[in-house]
């Protein structure tokens, strides 16, 4: 009889739990969407410098039209009044092509609408390697090298940091533990800073590794040789990323492991005679999983912020280098395209993290109102 009552109670609780999860997920999606909208709109305003870039573009159009007029004999033979009308017409066409005939705020709202539905449009000054002016093609062409470099570095950093942090938690107060603590402040320097020193040592002085690029020139024909060339070119940038972060990551995770290893339930598990590996896996790693997952996921998203300078230093043909060029050329569609993808990736990652928290951390519960 009691088993039957428990089964009925569970069946009643399942719909209630499902409603809470759906309600919470919908609320989080709406909040993240509005956050992304605000971030993208602010980026549009900043990328245009509040309308100052429009003035630069208008001046460039006038300069280009003036040069075309004075180098075209047919236009120069026209009367002065007709020549002026022709120049004004050419300037008007150039401004309409870039949308400069509309007010800045109105154009910014159109940019925002297109951005939210991923209509990224055409680049104003940049081309993809295949010659396309579509922003989508530029991003898709440069995104794989960036993902290859930074995801590889983040995976290596994740597993190496966890292994080292667990090892140091077992050797608290040892010489190695003190060395890692002393080296933790070195993570304040960005990856490109260490990259410059690595280039000087291993490329300029020792000549063991290439200065930059993604593959040898000319590229090898065979796929195995091509992959080996890419791996060789990845050593220095991956090393710079890992070296700039690993000591702080190890120190942080080692601290979390030490905190949870001193909990009462861990002492009870030790008193029961459970093996050390089992205790670490069940009672120490499990409570720290939300922090570890957050660090790993946001580290992946951080590739967009760290890619710009690092890829420029190593001449890595990724999205960061393309974004650096776009900023220098005031190519707003490309800047917005990269920012939009970043905003969506960040929002999706935060949403997935909320779901993962409930799965990996039994302490996270949802109330009847859908609040954690």
TrEMBL record:
Coiled coil: none annotated. GO terms for cellular component: plasma membrane. Its main location: membrane. GO terms for biological process: transmembrane transport. It is a multi-pass membrane protein. Signal peptide: none annotated. It is found in: Cell membrane. Keywords: Cell membrane, Membrane, Transmembrane, Transmembrane helix, Transport. Residues 143-357 form the ABC transmembrane type-1 domain. The chain crosses the membrane at residues 21-47, 147-168, 180-206, 226-251, 291-314, 334-360. InterPro entries: MetI-like, MetI-like_sf. It comes from the Bacteria. Gene3D superfamilies: MetI-like. Belongs to the binding-protein-dependent transport system permease family. This is ABC transporter permease. It comes from Candidatus Segetimicrobium genomatis.
């Amino acid at each position: 009889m009691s088993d039957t009552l428990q089964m009925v109670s569970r069946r009643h609780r399942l719909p209630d739990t499902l409603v809470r999860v759906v309600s919470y997920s919908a609320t989080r999606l709406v909040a993240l969407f509005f956050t992304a909208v605000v971030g993208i709109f602010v980026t549009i305003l900043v990328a245009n410098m509040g309308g100052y870039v429009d003035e630069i573009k208008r001046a460039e159009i006038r300069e280009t039209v003036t040069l075309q007029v004075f180098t075209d004999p047919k236009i120069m033979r026209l009367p002065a009044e007709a020549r002026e009308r022709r120049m004004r017409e050419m300037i008007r066409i150039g401004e309409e092509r870039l949308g400069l005939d509309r007010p800045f705020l109105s154009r910014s709202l159109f940019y925002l609408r297109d951005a939210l539905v991923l209509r990224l449009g055409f680049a104003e000054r940049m081309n993809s390697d295949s010659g396309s002016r579509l922003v989508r093609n530029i991003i898709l062409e440069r995104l794989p090298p960036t993902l290859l470099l930074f995801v590889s570095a983040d995976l290596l950093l994740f597993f190496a940091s966890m292994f080292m942090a667990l090892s140091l938690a077992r050797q608290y107060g040892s010489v190695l533990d003190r060395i890692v603590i002393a080296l933790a402040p070195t993570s304040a320097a960005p990856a490109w800073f260490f990259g410059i020193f690595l280039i000087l040592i291993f490329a300029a002085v020792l000549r063991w590794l290439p200065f930059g690029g993604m593959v040898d020139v000319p590229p090898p024909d065979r796929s195995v040789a091509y992959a080996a060339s890419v791996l060789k070119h990845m050593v220095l940038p991956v090393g710079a990323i890992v070296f700039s972060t690993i000591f702080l990551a190890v120190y942080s995770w080692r601290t979390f492991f030490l905190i949870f290893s001193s909990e009462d339930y861990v002492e009870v598990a030790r008193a029961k005679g459970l093996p050390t590996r089992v205790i670490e896996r069940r009672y120490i790693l499990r409570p720290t999983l939300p922090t570890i997952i957050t660090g790993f996921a946001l580290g992946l998203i951080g590739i967009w912020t760290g890619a710009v300078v690092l890829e420029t230093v190593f001449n890595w043909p990724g999205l960061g280098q393309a974004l650096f060029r776009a900023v220098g050329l005031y190519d707003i569609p490309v800047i917005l395209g990269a920012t939009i993808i970043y905003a969506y990736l960040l929002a999706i990652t935060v949403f997935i993290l909320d779901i993962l928290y409930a799965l990996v951390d039994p302490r996270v519960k949802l109330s009847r109102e859908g609040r954690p």
